Amino acid sequence: MKKTKLLTVLTFVSVAILVGCNNDSTSNNSVPNTDNQEQKDENDPGEQNNQDSSEDNGDDNDIEGGSSLVERNDDANDSESEEKEPNLGEGDTEDQLNLEIGDTGVIETTIEKFEMTINSVTVEKEIDGEKPDLGVFVLADVTFRNIHEEPLDLEQAVGTFEVTTSEDGGGYGPVSEFYNVEVEDLSGDLEPGEEVQGQILFEDNLGDKHYIKVNPGLISASAVKNQVMWKFSEEDSE
Known about the structure:
four-stranded mixed sheet, four-stranded antiparallel sheet, globular, Immunoglobulin-like, single chain, 26% strand
């Protein structure tokens, strides 16, 4: 009887020990293995790096694509500029420095070529009740003829000229816009082969001789290729 009781007690103790061991094992298995996770993160940095690299490559591709587009646009703009670029080389029109009233001069610019004839000049100290800031008004009656294949800007052509009392010195450009003087101004475009007559109003210092010529500054800047000069005196005035 005592042996039976002892056997029963030992059985219960064994069962209790087994149950306790199983619980410890289950508890250990349920705890996350942080060491393994950290080791995995250290061993697999490539995944994050690959993602970052992929994003960087995407940005680089966008930049390269944009740069190519800009280069193509720049090339197109350069082509347009070259098509519209004026001829900056030397012209083939000679200087004409000894012209008189009634003579025709040929003027070549970077973008135009035209003739101007001074038909007559009027030198007056007063016109239409207006007096010049300088000594005299010089009113030139002129004819323009376009000998280029493109339309001629008449206002620009008129602005090419000045009047002076010195062959070598600087002079004064057209002044019709500054005085209330009736002048047949020239404006608009003159088509190739066509001609038009009008007037240019200058003012100049008093002097025995006067010269209407191309503004020397335009020649120095290569905007005009040749010098053209008409010489006259007050005796030539009508």
